[in-house]
Amino acid sequence: MDVVVKKGGAGSAQMEPAVPNSSSAAAANAAAASFAALLEKLDYLDSASIEQVRQAYRYADAAHLGQLRSSGEPYITHPIAVAALCASWKLDVQALMAALLHDAMEDCGITKADLIDRFGAPVAELVDGLTKLDKLQFNTREENQAESFRKMLLAMARDVRVILIKLADRTHNMRTLSDMPRSKWHRISSETLEIYAPIAHRLGLNQTYRELQDLAFRHLHPWRYATLAKAVAKSRNRRRDIVQKVQAEVDAAFARQGMAVRLAGREKTLFAIYQKMDAKHLSFAQVTDLYGFRIIVPTVTDCYTALGVLHQMYKPVPGKFKDHIAIAKLNGYQSLHTTLVGPAGLNVEFQVRTEEMHVVAEAGVAAHWLYKAQETDGTVAERLGTKWLQSLLDIQNETRDAAEFWDHVKVDLFPDAVYVFTPKSQILALPRGATAVDFAYAIHSDVGDRTTAARINNEQVPLRTELKNGDVVEVVTKQGARPNPAWLAFVRTGRARSKIRHYLKNMAQSESAGLGEKLLTQALRAEGMEQLPDAQTHAALWEKLLRFTGSRSRAELMTDIGLGKRIANIVAKRLVLLLTEDGQRPDALLLTRERYSSHENVSQGSITLDGSENASVQYAPCCRPVPGDPIVGYLGRGEGLVVHHAQCGVAKKLQHKDGERFIAVDWSDEPTRMFETAITVTVSNGKGVLARIALELASSEADIVRVDMDDAMDTIDLRFVVAVRDLAHMETVLRNLRRTQSVLRAFRVLPQPA
After folding, report:
1. 417 bridge partner residues
2. Region of poorest pLDDT, from 171-175, 476-480, 547-551
3. Cα 734 to Cα 678: distance, rounded to the nearest angstrom
4. H-type helices in 658-713, by residue range?
5. N or C: which end of the chain has fewer CB within 10 A?
6. Sheet holding 631-636: strands in order across?
7. Cβ-based neighbours of 590, under 8 Å, separated by 6 or more
8. Same-domain status, 125 and 253
9. Which DSSP letter does residue 195 get?
10. What angle, rounded to 10 degrees, do the helices at 77-88 and 161-175 form?
């Protein structure tokens, strides 16, 4: 797009599209809207394929007839431009047809069935993957956007052509963004920087990645862009002689070696310069690596030979050599990188690669089409980000919520990576900041689930330890071990995060189903029936019960009861009614025994707790009951069973408001773990007091979970959350604390009455 710079007030410069005269504009519009503009780029297709593309053009042209873009051009110019970009990647005929039709479903009322009928299912699937969802389905713009991205990314995982067409679409929209109202620039540019540019980078489309970044920068910060552009132009003029000298010297050096090389100059993009200045707080003059050269050679061996030639010419800058050939980047990028001190002390970066590496470096996954005739073993496709695409499907299988799916995917759109080794010397690429747990899940989800410890370079380390380049990582697994919810606080990869959440969700449902079955059985006993009817023998009866409750399966019903979404005694009464219709009668003796048991709330029986219930039972943090305390159980809606101290004010209020959700609970005679409770210790202010208290707690076998303090002039209130075995153990701990030097008083924080 032509651009002119207009002077504004106070010396400001405003970037505006150039305004052509009306006659030339009409001619240009007609030319851009014609099929001829695309035809010259289709020389790699046969005549039958070109005719198919022509048919798609005619259909799209008719569908968009009368529609105009913000610039005033016929709308069809946009699909043609998108198809032309796809043609530059040599995409196949189906992708080009989809590119021409990509807005037909969204903007023209054409259905997927219409496209299937006219152009076949593959083209229709591509267009459908590109079509945004109906905004009326969602409550917020963010929810709609998350669902749209999820749909697009899943379509892309099944067929990478979807994202290639989408990136071509976004690139053309960004090229013509100046025609849009200025109020839309920020949103569209931010979305491009946060989503589309990282996806392009993740898939190795570096040319598209750089262009999207620069176009977004230009519209997000037009004044900074204009200032930097001016500074780079001045620098280019000043250093032209030096750059030409370097080029001549490099040409001569390779000529002397008899090596056939292709030398191309490369300038750092404006956005990359801006990022470097912003991140490292540099002035423009301090950015020394503005210029670089790409050296294209015939073979991989020539790459290393060329590196030797360069290092003999100029001194290398220490620490600035990277071998991305031996260890390719995550997106398939391969090159040797070295920074040399050239004439006049100018730092010059050289990238050395083969012709094939160059195509992959610029086009990423699109290189699959450019090179598919030569590559038959599938290794290029595997190298070019397909593992990440597959991981999208894995994450989707475990994450049905669109916003959660998008959160998982965003953490994988990382710009940098660390490369670590397994004990068998296999290389694994992970995002910067990844931990030993991420490594375990990258090996296999079963390994991740059963991980208990990790060793890095033969040293035992915490699981949250961040990995560094070159680390040799080994994880220790144990049969029966399972993921810890605390891992979610530090894992970095979307795969690890989704696997942990999926496991915990399944575990919670499984435990809730067990609790639900226990509750329903006890509620049924209170109605005079000994046990639940068998699922197979009484299939018709269960079918009727599920219709009554609205549950899809017996397991779902039990889970809902365990989570408090259904009341066990209501379900039990309905079940008794169905059993009675089936000819069974309540046991009068059982009914009498259950009705006159010692518990006030007998309709659901009593649950025995020993601490092994995990996710299905929670111990209320407002009162922190321990074995020996009088307790009540509350079936919160969707929370499972929440256990409160019988005197807890929160429980009393809930009992008054929601009494039917309370059930009787008892402590087991032999709890299986420690329970948390809160104590306050008031001490005289002095040196080493906290250490003495901590030592006393440790000798009393009470684990410190958390400590806070209120500091006054002469005294300090130390507020501890400690883990104890039971009420008797807690009393022993308090007695020992009261005998400790400097302690004025020690007491348990009791639940507040209502």
Report:
1. 431
2. 547-551
3. 11
4. 689-699
5. N
6. 606-609, 662-667, 631-636, 640-645, 617-619
7. 525, 528, 529, 530
8. no
9. I
10. 120
Report the 10 Å Cβ neighbour count for 356: 17
User: Percentage of residues in the chain with pLDDT exceeding 70?
Assistant: 78
**227-268 per-position pLDDT tens digit:** 888 888 887 777 777 778 888 888 888 888 888 888 887 777
Number of domains in the chain: 4
Domain annotation covers residue 406: no
Highest mean pLDDT among 91-100, 155-164, 265-274, 559-568: 91-100
Active site residues: 106-107
Of the ranges 14-23, 461-470, 630-639, the best mean pLDDT one: 461-470
Residues 655 and 699 placed together within one structural domain of the fold? no
Q: At 87, which CATH number?
A: 1.10.3210.10
Which pair of structure tokens corresponds to residue 401? 């919520």
Q: Residues 416-419: contacts with CB within 8 Å, 24+ apart?
A: 417/329, 417/330, 418/467, 418/468, 418/469, 418/471, 419/327, 419/469, 419/470
Q: 209 vs 362, which has greater pLDDT?
A: 209
Q: What is the DSSP string of 67-86?
A: -B-TTSSBTTHHHHHHHHHH
Q: Which residue has the tokens 């507040």?
A: 752
The pLDDT of 714-720, averaged and rounded, is 86
- Comparing C-alpha atoms, which of 630, 705, 641 is closest to residue 673? 705
Q: Does residue 726 sit within a domain?
A: yes
- Check whether 394 has a pLDDT greater than 70: no
| Tokens linked to 45 | 């297709």
Domain that holds residue 44: 3-220
Nearest to 386 by CA among 407, 406, 364: 364
Task: Find tokens 């990509």 and name the residue.
Answer: 102
